[in-house]
Design goal:
binds zinc ion, globular, eight-stranded antiparallel β-sheet, Jelly Rolls, metal-binding, mannose-6-phosphate isomerase
């Protein structure tokens, strides 16, 4: 077991206070700090300080001893790669609207772009790697997101509540076919509207949203989000598309799972995110980055539903967030002030332990000990002996544990 030294990604939508405060650094940081990466992503792998005083990346260590680090099963299944990446997300401003391809779509898209000779780091590359990218986000603070298409009957109600003359024909389109095909038709129409039509429709819709918010209408939160996105991207079709997605507020400890095809957008808040170690993202707007609408339309799932909010299956000390993603499993462990029961972690598969509140003592069966402070994380290779984890301080303590899925 070793402490991880992790990279911070400075994307513009990040917070200048959340990650520095979590790590006990000076706030505000000079630049936005959006994501803390824990894992072996080739773009920014975590590092471990060796007994010889030399720092190595987790990627190098895995290459040197894949079976020792990953265990035989994970090494074989994922071709000697760590299948997941653990992150802290510090979202100050909304991200882009995006969806991720399935394993089959990723393999096909990757092969197609390789054959076309598009460099893997090109800005218009959709499939830099051939693998899927399911994600699970677990809130550390109140966390806001748009995800998955709302029940069409509810969306018709929303569109009628913000009715404007320009919107009426689209509302009736969905009302006439209130199912996933109707949703596909409306989304496709909006996302491909000529700029001139958008420039007419968007101001009308934004004005209607202002009115709805003033009157404290039923869809207040939805309209406020549309207004926020419209202010940042006043000519972007993604603002209209935002009217179609579920507007979610997660409390700390609640999570959502975003499988392949789920259209989503993170709005605000701090979360722990676990995802497959892939960069395959298809964006449809609300970003200066590469947008590929035809390719996005091929992968988006238009099945409409309420997005389930996951509280996790209760475990001895917290909850396990089960999903159908074979790449990862995330669990959470909590100690209230004064509680000091021990958590036993048996590796067998690769594990990352992340402390998000308080301070923890980790003691291995071979006698090795390590202190894990708030904002710190550690790597536990599959072949390591079992460890016992317990809080060091008297206050509330929280641990997240990431491992490969089943
Ligand atoms: Zn995503």
């Amino acid at each position: 077991m070793e402490l991880l030294r992790n990279a911070v990604r400075p994307y513009a939508w990040g917070s200048r206070t959340t990650i520095p405060a979590l790590q006990g650094r000076e706030v505000p940081a000079p630049h936005p700090e959006a994501e803390l990466w824990m894992g072996a992503h080739p773009g920014d792998p975590s590092r471990i300080l060796g007994a010889d005083g030399v720092e190595r990346t987790l990627l190098e260590l895995l290459e040197g001893d894949p079976i020792g680090h990953l265990g035989e099963e994970t090494a074989q299944r994922w071709n000697n790669r760590l299948p997941f990446l653990l992150k802290i997300l510090a979202v100050e401003e909304p991200l882009s609207m995006q969806a991720h391809p399935s394993a089959e779509q990723s393999a096909e898209g990757h092969a197609r772009e390789e054959a076309a000779g598009i460099p893997r780091d090109a800005s218009n590359r959709n499939y830099p790697d051939p693998t899927a990218k399911p994600e699970l986000v677990c809130a550390l603070t109140e966390f806001h997101a748009l995800a998955g298409f709302r029940d069409p009957a509810q969306t018709v109600k929303l569109l009628r509540a913000v009715e404007t003359p320009g919107l009426a024909k689209y509302t009736e389109l969905l009302a006439a076919q209130p199912d996933s095909d109707g949703m596909r038709a409306l989304f496709t129409t909006w996302i491909t509207l000529p700029q001139a039509s958008l420039d007419e429709l968007l101001p009308e819709v934004l004005d209607a949203c202002v009115l709805h918010v003033k009157e404290h209408g039923e869809f207040d939160a939805e309209c406020r989000t549309v207004l926020e996105l419209g202010e940042a991207h006043p000519r972007d079709a993604g603002v209209l598309a935002a009217l179609l997605l579920n507007r979610l507020t997660l409390s700390a400890g609640e999570a959502i799972y975003l499988p392949a095809g789920n259209l989503h957008l993170y709005l605000h808040g701090t979360a722990v995110e676990i995802l497959a170690n892939s960069d395959n993202i298809l964006r449809c707007g609300l970003t200066p980055k590469h947008v590929d609408v035809p390719e996005l339309l091929r992968v988006v799932d238009f099945e409409c539903c309420d997005m389930p909010i996951l509280t996790g299956e209760p475990s001895e000390c917290g909850a396990v967030y089960h999903t159908d993603a074979p790449e990862f499993e995330l669990s959470r462990c909590e100690w209230e002030a004064g509680e000091d029961h021990e958590l036993l972690v048996r590796p067998g598969s690769p594990q990352i332990l992340l402390c998000t509140a308080g301070e923890l003592l980790v003691r291995a069966e071979d006698g090795k000990e390590l202190t894990l402070g708030r904002g710190e994380s550690m790597w536990l290779p599959a072949s390591d002996p079992a460890v016992r984890v317990r809080p060091l301080g008297a206050g509330r303590t929280q641990l997240f544990r990431a491992t490969s899925g089943k």
